[in-house]
Design brief:
By secondary structure, the chain is α+β, with helices and mostly antiparallel strands. 47% of the residues lie in helices and 21% in strands. The chain has a 4-stranded antiparallel sheet with strand order 1-2-4-3.
Length: 121
């Protein structure tokens, strides 16, 4: 799992109508949740990240799933009310990875159960 840019997501999809379909919802979310980050990952990684948000930040998960780019891969954009919450989330992303064979991730990560033991990372 890795942090990506909005531009990288638009290039990956190559279909402007897919991106345009989410723009009204994205604009609405940004009004109340002004901090956002784009993540590319395997679906299990995204689920683990969402669990981490709920358990560690103790916030509801606010996201737009932009779509799949491969069999089990996709882009999701997460929205936060504070910069501090987003910064914590940015730091944890490289440490969440899939146990699936050949799952694309950047660098070393640790399983979610280890992160839970660390507490408020």
């Amino acid at each position: 799992m890795r942090v990506q840019t909005y531009q990288a997501m638009t290039i990956a999809f190559e279909e402007p109508e897919l991106i345009a379909a989410n723009e009204p919802l994205r604009a609405e979310k940004l009004q109340s949740l002004p901090y956002c980050m784009m993540v590319e990952g395997e679906h299990r990684e995204l689920e683990n990240f969402e669990s981490w948000i709920r358990e560690t930040l103790q916030e509801p998960v606010n996201l737009i799933y932009h779509g799949k780019t491969g069999y089990n891969l996709g882009f999701a954009e997460y929205f936060f009310a504070t910069d501090g919450s987003m910064q914590q989330a940015l730091r944890i992303v490289p440490r969440i990875y899939s146990l699936y064979y050949n799952a694309p991730h950047t660098g070393r990560g640790v399983p979610l159960r280890w992160l839970r033991q660390l507490g408020n990372y």
